[in-house]
Design goal:
Blueprint: E1 8-20, E2 23-35, E3 41-45, H1 50-57, E4 62-66, E5 71-75, E6 77-83, H2 98-112, H3 116-132, E7 135-141, H4 146-159, E8 162-166, E9 168-169, H5 183-200, E10 207-209, E11 212-213, H6 221-234, E12 238-242, H7 246-255, H8 262-268, E13 276-280, H9 286-295, E14 298-301, H10 303-308, H11 316-321, E15 326-328, H12 340-358, H13 366-380, E16 398-402, E17 404-405, E18 422-423, H14 429-439, E19 445-450, E20 453-457
Parallel strand pairs: 1-4, 6-7, 7-8, 8-10, 9-11, 12-13, 13-14, 14-15, 17-18
Antiparallel strand pairs: 1-2, 2-3, 5-16, 16-19, 19-20
The protein binds xanthine and zinc ion.
Zinc ion (ZN) binds next to strand 6.
């Protein structure tokens, strides 16, 4: 059958997804029917027989995709905070902390990406790498360079990754070689990137511009005000960093003495909104938590980066208990890993350190970490009706996960090399999922789809 004749794809097998913060739904012998034109879920059959699948197989215009033994479909991961231009520095951070890390490692690399061919090379690799780990949606910071930012948007669009792409605004306290010329120029350049994305993807079906003040210390009051006004006028989302490191928090207090907190600085300029993504949020005071909640701003929790840069451990349970929406971010390259599975794992691990001081309730479970990695991230980015789970009308943004079945007889694993997670056959599905979270990696990601289109296909082994 010609590809163009296919009107719907029927995915058959086991489907696992979050139905709440603490519950994973497991549908075995189920089917999800996806329309090819819009990539949306048309029907979910909770139990299907081989006979029914056989009938579908015989239908013109229908393609069947099966999850094999030990495999399951899972919603695509959502990375709510990642710096694409920092990707080559993944793993390179030594024992630096935020402010010296920026000067030593980050600004020189980001500045060098004003070279378009270097930018293209780095972005193409970053996007294919994150896709291979199952990231179907990413909120990217680019650099302050317009051409390079536009290259990132084009690379995401061509690769089929759902993305938010922001030109990084920074007109203060950054090195001379890497600083916006003026607030007016920073705003004009931000608009130029948004216009480019509007032409690339007019309905923002896949790629959306995002207003990106780097963080308060690198933005003048005039720039923050201009970006706040642009947010109000355009309706675009916004992403920034907040309260990541104690020295940074003290620095903001010194730079903006007229405001009583870091969060109040963003609020004063109209940047604390329901469409705002705040990365880190480790040292928010009670008053700041209340303000973030009142404004409906969202939080990107970046546990790998928080540990790597010795920033601290965010109190995620507290944020969740307050009703603040939280997703996960890799924060490459403050975080060394492009994998949201790694971020989910480290979210549970750092929560155990928080539990040592705040009590058992602070611990995050596997179900909760996977919720943050999917539905939580979707809500952070305003995509909760579109992606993050398998529900009618949602888009098919999904991954096929494969674990290794260890045979009952001693000997080689047939078709082995499927990855680092060994399954012996007596585990429940939830135990298999826990093994995947703690022991798995990209070798377990066999296929990835965005809006029903295949965007990563692991070669057969
Ligand atoms: O983790 C971080 N990565 C960055 O690039 C950055 N810039 C400001 N603050 C930051 N934090
Ligand atoms: Zn960051």
């Amino acid at each position: 059958m010609e590809i163009s004749e296919i009107r719907r794809t029927v995915y058959v097998g086991t489907f696992i997804y979050s139905t709440s913060l603490t519950k994973l739904e497991v549908l075995e012998n189920a089917a999800v029917i996806v329309g090819v034109d819009k990539g949306t879920i048309l029907a979910i059959e909770k139990t299907v027989t081989e006979e029914t699948v056989g009938l579908w197989e015989g239908e013109v215009g229908t393609k069947i995709v099966r999850a094999g033994e030990g495999q399951f479909f899972f919603p695509g991961f959502i990375d709510t905070h990642i710096h694409a231009p920092q990707y080559p520095n993944s793993g390179i951070f030594g024992s630096s902390t935020l402010l010296d890390w920026l000067d030593r490692y980050t600004f020189p690399l980001e500045a060098s990406l004003s070279n378009p061919s270097k930018a293209h090379r780095v972005y193409a690799r970053c996007v294919s790498r994150t896709l291979s780990h199952g990231t179907t949606t990413a909120a990217y910071y680019a650099t302050r360079d317009v051409t390079s930012t536009n290259i990132l948007a084009s690379v995401c669009f061509a690769a089929g990754q759902r993305a938010f792409v922001g030109r990084c605004c920074m007109d203060c306290l950054s090195p001379d070689y890497y600083r916006d010329e003026s607030p007016a120029q920073a705003i004009a350049d931000t608009k130029a990137c948004a216009n480019y994305i509007d032409k690339l993807d007019p309905t923002h079906a896949l790629v959306t511009p995002i207003i990106t003040p780097r963080f308060a210390p690198s933005c003048s009051r005039e720039l923050l005000a201009g970006l706040g006004a642009y947010m109000a006028e355009s309706g675009l989302p916004c992403q920034t960093h907040i309260s990541e490191n104690k020295a940074e928090v003290a620095f903001v207090a010194e730079l903006f003495p007229e405001y009583d907190s870091y969060a109040s600085v963003y609020d004063a300029y109209g940047l604390l909104q329901p469409k705002t993504v705040l990365a880190h949020a480790i040292y928010l005071s009670d008053a700041e938590i209340a303000l973030v909640k009142r404004r409906g701003a969202k939080v990107s929790h970046c546990p790998v980066s928080n540990t790597a840069l010795t920033s601290g451990a965010a109190k995620v349970r507290r944020l969740l208990d307050e009703g603040i929406v939280v997703g996960l971010g890799t924060d490459v390259s403050g975080g060394y890993s492009p994998s949201i599975l790694e971020a989910a794992r480290q979210a549970t691990m750092t929560s155990r350190f928080v539990a040592l001081t705040d009590g058992e309730a602070a611990k995050l479970g596997v179900e909760e970490a996977l919720y943050l990695a999917t539905r939580g991230g979707a809500e952070v980015l305003g995509l909760e009706k579109k992606v993050g789970a398998f529900e009618l009308g949602m888009e098919w943004d999904a991954i096929l996960v494969g674990l290794t079945d260890v045979p009952e007889e001693l000997g080689e694993v047939v078709g082995g090399g499927m990855g680092p997670v060994d399954v012996f056959g007596w585990e429940s599905w939830l135990e298999k999922v826990a093994k995947w979270v703690y022991c798995g990696d990209d070798r377990n990601v066999l296929k990835v789809w965005v809006s029903g289109k295949i965007v990563h296909n692991k070669p057969e082994q």
